[in-house]
Amino acid sequence: MFEYKIKRKADENREYDSGAVKSSDGAEADTWVENNRELSSRYRDHLEIVKEVYDLAYNFLCKTFEKPEDIVLPIDARKLAEACGFSVTIEDFSAMKKNADRTYSPVAQLQMRRRTGGQYQGQIAGTIRIADYLGDKSVNFSIAHELGHYILREHSPIGLNFLEEACLGMYPLCKTDELLMDLFAYGLLLPYQCFSQLKEEYENDSTRWPIDVSDWIAFLRDKTQMPEYHVVLAYQGIKQYALAKKKHEAEQGTEEWKERLIRVLLYDLKMTKREVVSILQIDDHNRSEQEELLAAVEWIQDKEIQKKWRKDYEYSLNNDADGETLPPGQEDDQQANIFVGCKQEEIDQILLKLYDFGLSEKLIAEKTGEDMEKITELIKEYEKKQAAEEGVKETMS
Question: Which of 55, 131, 132, 279 could be 93's S-S partner, Cβ–Cβ 3.0 to 4.6 Å?
């Protein structure tokens, strides 16, 4: 589970600053860039919510079906509802009161009740009511949406008749609940765990190359039997889920030496995220490794931002304390050698990449804790090898 960040009041009313944006360096530009990093970090927190809702929807599928392999697309939301004790009825909603502007009518409504007798006494049952003018795809999605109201409900206990407010469909602006239930429906009808197989099936079809986004969305629409509008948003959720998943994997799998090195490259040497990835990447042509490293860099960046916010907050509360709280921006001491636990061949490759990046031998030694003589000898051998390769090229030409 992720931690919610302490948000500083100074960022709440941030405005566009043309001077800071146009400046290539200086205090204004530095502040602007730092605020942008914090904005990205907060967005990645939002991705955690998407992942949690999608995982909950998939867990519901697993508990409803006997085996995970039974989960195949398209998901029949009506069967899921019936398995939970809900009947589905198609009704005429025209008698329901329209909104003040009379521009749209309800599309679905959930009625719940507590069972009072029999084997399932005390459990919830009920009815999912669906407007009769909806097409098959919209009916299936609406049932999934209403199941979200059931699973993510914020009301307990349920009495003999609990009626959720009717859902007004896609057109109107709506409350938090409705957007959250849509998100649950996306995770239910297009589970992330089923997505890789779909993507592989699509990419292996040579008739679909070069890939066209419209064709891809139509393919997902046909496989999931969702309305196309919702397919686009569900696919966006898949992208967000994948990023959150990579962040979790980075948190669990990033070695301590790599974490220390990333901090040095980002904050001491002021490298960009892409530059840090290029320094750490062993195989420059491995896209998967590149994505994993970028996730690790962003995870470290998020940790440092959160640490800074916490220090700012604590300092504002305890600025009269006897030195117990670190002033904002003051960093913890770095270890003498950041490569503890790293393989020697990886150390050598990283040292040479830092040298190619333009760092002096002295600065490399200072920032990594590596022996200066060892770095000098490594660079001499590297340059000697490069010179020999250049000589061979000139001879061949």
Answer: 131
Contact in structure between 257 and 339 (CB atoms under 8 Å): yes
Residue 357 Cα distances to 41, 183, 265, 275, angstroms: 27, 44, 11, 9
Q: How many CB atoms lie within 10 A of CB 174?
A: 14
Q: Which tokens in the block code for residue 319?
A: 């600025």
DSSP character for 105?
A: -
Please tell me the predicted confidence (pLDDT) of residue 72.
Answer: 92
92: alpha, beta or left, given left = phi > 0 and alpha = psi -120 to 50?
Answer: beta
Q: What is the pLDDT of residue 2?
A: 41
What lies within 8 Å, CB to CB, of 228 at 6+ separation is 217, 218, 221
Do 251 and 48 meet the contact criterion of CB atoms below 8 Å apart? no
Asked whether 280 and 262 are in contact (CB, 8 A), the reply is yes
Per-residue pLDDT of 40-74, as tens digits, reads: 988 998 899 999 999 999 999 999 988 888 899 99
What angle, rounded to 10 degrees, do the helices at 273-280 and 344-357 form?
140
Q: In what order do the strands lie in the sheet with 162-163?
A: 86-91, 124-131, 108-114, 162-163
pLDDT tens readout for residues 187-224: 999 999 999 899 999 999 999 999 899 999 999 999 99
Residue 38's nearest CA partner among 289, 307, 232 is 307
What the block records as the tokens of 293 is 């490293």
CB 224 within 8 A of CB 187: no
Q: What is the spatial distance between Cα 222 and Cα 210, in angstroms, rounded to a whole number?
A: 20
**DSSP collapsed to 3 states, 25-71:** CCHHHHHHHHHHHHHHHHHHHHHHHHHHHHHHHHHHHHHHCCCHHHC
Lowest mean pLDDT among 48-57, 331-340, 345-354: 331-340
Residue of 392 and 255 predicted with greater confidence: 255
Determine the pLDDT at residue 172.
72
Q: What is residue 207's DSSP assignment? A: G
**pLDDT at residue 89 tops 60:** yes
Burial of 389 (0-12, 13-18, 19+ CB in 10 A): exposed
